Structure formats: C-alpha cells, structure tokens
Amino acid sequence: MTPRVDVADLVAKARDGQPRAVARLISLIEDASPRLREVAAALAPFAGRAQVIGLTGPPGVGKSTSTSALVAALRRAGKRVGVLAVDPSSPFSGGALLGDRIRMQEHALDPGVYIRSMATRGHLGGLAWATPQALRVLDAAGCDVVLVETVGVGQSEVEVVSLADTTLVLLAPGMGDGVQVAKAGILEVADIFVVNKADRDGTEQTVRDLKYMISLGRREVPGPIWRPPIVKTVASRGEGIDDVLAAIAEHHDWMSTHGELEQRRQRRAEAEVEAIAVEQLRERLGDIRDQHRGSALPLLAKRVAAGKLDPYVAADELVTALGRNGHETH
Amino acid sequence: MTPRVDVADLVAKARDGQPRAVARLISLIEDASPRLREVAAALAPFAGRAQVIGLTGPPGVGKSTSTSALVAALRRAGKRVGVLAVDPSSPFSGGALLGDRIRMQEHALDPGVYIRSMATRGHLGGLAWATPQALRVLDAAGCDVVLVETVGVGQSEVEVVSLADTTLVLLAPGMGDGVQVAKAGILEVADIFVVNKADRDGTEQTVRDLKYMISLGRREVPGPIWRPPIVKTVASRGEGIDDVLAAIAEHHDWMSTHGELEQRRQRRAEAEVEAIAVEQLRERLGDIRDQHRGSALPLLAKRVAAGKLDPYVAADELVTALGRNGHETH
Fold this sequence. Notes:
Two copies of one chain form a homodimer.
Chain A lengths: L6 H9 L3 H12 L5 H8 L7 E6 L6 H14 L4 E7 L10 H6 L9 E7 L6 H15 L4 E6 L4 H7 L4 E6 L6 H6 L8 E4 L7 H15 L12 E3 L8 H17 L2 H28 L8 H10 L5 H15 L5
Parallel strand pairs in A: 1-4, 1-5, 2-3, 2-4, 5-6, 6-7
C-alpha cells in the first residue's frame, strides 16, 4: 500500500522486539502487499524457532479465555508468547471484531506478549496462505511459543491449526450432542482434547462421549501412536491450565523422540510453499485474456452457466492458455 | 475406482430419476474419479435449472431439522427436492456421520427427494471443487430445488453456501453473545436470517442483537439493496417454515428483477471452473521432479523449514518448473 515501507528496517525492529514493527509486518501480510517477497526473504533465516500451538473448537467453548489463560501461564514460565487469532474475512467489519480482544486486555501492556488478530480477506486459500507467513513474523520477533487460534470451525480453519506442532481441540459440556462436534471434522486433528467449563453439569458425559468417539475412530496403524489425552479446565479461573501445558510438553517430547516434530514442520513448509504457488497461479488464471482481450474466465463461465460448455473443458482452456502465455502476463 | 462404470448409462438413469444412479455419480465426485470429465460433459446440457438454496449456521442451531422441515414443505408444494449436506472430510469415519441422516429418515422413502451427505477428503479446495459438481448431478436429476447444507462454520463453508441463489443463515437463542456469531463471518452472506428454536427464552434478544449487527454492517452502496429479513421458526414443529419459503420466493423475485440471479449463477460457474483449474495446477505442482527425479516440493520445503530458502523463492521455482515441464508431465 505505502511504497515507502522500509522492509529491512521493519524486520530489524521486529527482531529487536518492537511491537509496532511486528504489527506492521503482519498488516503487510493481511493486505497481500507486493513487498511480501522482501519480508519473506528477510525473515527466512530466523524461521523455525518458535513452538507453534494450534487451538480450535466450536463457538462458545471459551477459546479466547483459554488462550488468555495459557498466555498467562507461559509468561509465568518466562516464555515470550505470540498469539495469532485467525478470523475469517469480514467485508463488514474489515476483519477482526472487538469481543475477543477485550478478554486479552490483561496482556495488552506486557512487552513479552504479541497479540494479533488477522483477517484474510476471504479469498480461497487465504488462511493457508497467510497464516504461516504471520507465524514467521512472530517467530522471528523472538516468540518462544506462538498460539494460533482459529475463530471459525470449518475445513480451512481445521487444516490451518492442524499444521501446528501441537493442536488443541476445545470442547465444553452442553454443546449439543457429540455428533455435532464430530461433524466439524476436528476430532481427527486433535493432539490434546481440552474440555473447558468443566465446573458445569455434563462434563463427565462430554468426556465419556469424547472417549467413545475416539475409540470409534481409532485405527490400527503401524508404528508408534500418540493417544490424545483429555484435559479438563475452567479457563476463566485458570484451573487445569498447568495440566494443558504439561500435556503439550509431553506431546512435544513424544514428537521429538519419534521424528514427528521435524515431519510436521516439513509439512507446514510444504503447505506454505504450495499455497503461495497456487495463489500465484490463481492470479494468473484471472489475468488470462481471450483473443478479443476480454477476461477469459467470466466468458468461459457464462457458457458453463448456460449449459453450452462443461466445466472441465472450460478449465482445460484456462490451463492451456496459462501454459501458452502465463509468462507473458507477468 | 471401478473402471467399468458406464457413465452415459449412469447419467441417463440419473436423469430418469433413479436414486442409485444419482448416488453413484456423487460418489464419483467424492472419490475425485478420473471419469469425472465424462460425467461433467454428459451433465452440462442439463445444468442451471434447479433453484439452489444454501443453509449454514453454527453447530446446534438446528440446521438438519430445518432442512428436513423445508423439504417437507417443498414436497407439499409438489417440488422435487435435492439435499446436499457438505461435511468436512473425516479420515476417521470416511465422511458423513449418521446423526443428521436419522433426522432426515422421514424423507428416506419419498422418491421425490434425494438426500446426500458428501465428504470432501480434506484437500484444500475440496468444498469449492466438489460442491458445484454434485449440485449439477441433482440439477440434472430433475430436482426443482437443491438445499446445500454445510456442517462446519468456516471460511470455505461460508464461501460455498454464499454461491447459492439464496443463502439462509440459521441462528438460535442462547448461542452465546452476538460476537460469537458475527465472528464466523456468516452475517455478510445471509440473504435471509432464520432464528430457529424461537419458542425459547432469549429469542427477542437474539433478534435485537441481529438487527443491531446488521445495522452496524450496513454500508451505503449504489444501486438496489436487498435487506435480509429475519424469520422466526420452530423447525421441530414446522412453525415458521412457510414464512421461510415466502422469504425465499421474495428474494428470488427480487434477484430476477435486478439481474442478480444471473450474476450469482455466473459467479458460481466462475468459482467452479476456477476451482477445477486450480486443482489441476495443484496436482501438477505435486508432480514436479527436480533434476534428480525426486519430488520437488518436499525438497524445497525442507530448505524453507531450515531457514535456507524463503517460501516465495521456493514457490517461484515450482511455478517456473511448471511452465517448463507442466505439459510434459500430463
């Protein structure tokens, strides 16, 4: 947006721990700034130090309260902490809403904590593309731990948190029957289950349902298997948070021992590189012109909508045109 | 999977209204069968007849019950109805869970209703790629109305239902504060809000919250504006369902009058063609070999994870290699 951004200076300041520089860099990512290449190049050597914890769960289970409690506990342990709250794009609000951030106020003045909501402008691939880049900023800024909290519960959101070193899935009693939770597709990605609001009626039932669902889904696979523990918390009072941290540490040790940590970080890098490449290709598809220099995609889509062309043939035409003039258009 | 599938025969039978043929065709889509090109070509001439209604909302608001009640009402009006319940992929269950389908049992023996859960195998672009193709099957099978219900509430899910002719967003009283709902990014895509379970305490508060959030988000845009109505229902007793259908009809008329219907169907076709093209390109990226004939992406990602390469440069290498040998690999 602002061409005079001094990327090298911003990165140096972020590495020096200046929150405004961290915020500016993440804004460049949100805005899909053309300067991102420079940012990525400057950050690359400092990647891969932070421990990345993913946190997801249905609305109302207390994700933000839990994140805040985890931040407090990690701070007591002397860790520098980054929080990345990934919100779906909102054309209305321009992104993040205020509600959650209020709950995080207690950490607002702590220089050892970066808290950042990130909107992703709603284009497909948005979360997959932007989250790892924002992680890299917090990583380079010296965070020992980065918590990635997703606000929605959908395919993209689950995929994003599942790329963390350790993924926490939060549930709460009385959230409707177990099927509702299982449907969200989040059971499979959990390294640790957290049943929050565990002072409420129905906690034991939720734990039982969860154990049953886990048992249903368990498959025999070769090699060592991590069995996701179930931890009960009352995040609003900080209860059980140390147990969550202990479970995270145990999972981290397990992964290190079994080579899984390296594999996950490899997968995360693959997802990041692929997402950037796919976005580049998607942009090029949108840039393709037909012989009359009109935009090709809408014209092809019009014929598809009218039943005159099938969508595969239309896609073939686009992909072939990309091969022909993909390098001319850029 | 089964190379001996006779696609032309299946499509003819689906058009003839045979439910097993419809189910087989949708399974081919779920499985990303290589025969899909033939399916798409055979279905293309019969596209664009069905009215497509999207339905989303947080877990526990009664989406399945509402869908079932809408199906019953549409059947009474003599319509043939398709239901597509889009579930995130579940490596555990192999896709759809049983819970919802039980609620749909009452329609199981009705030959005028097709009900289909669809899993999308969790690859990025899964929903965007598979949903329009499955819609096309139900469309060609003679459904007057297709209801697309998404189970998750995330970026991809919201994008998928927002491509419908009319998008219903379901809420319920006591689902937590309004912010929880707004965060899911679903307010913006609603053509009609449905407050279900409207016999419960807190209904009027939910309606007020909703009106307030809508007023916050309203922007002055040029041209005619559709103001999303709020309809109260008790879907389990069928109450208010006729009001929902009336609101859908009103929205449909409004869109037809203002050229919006054609625009939405054009956008849906664009999204479909783009998703197919992007998936093709993504597959080709995965097929790229380096000079030692190793898979290029994992090797590049390894260097990115180690901080030796930045992800943009890695992506550039992939995209350049695609331009070089993209046409050789296929």
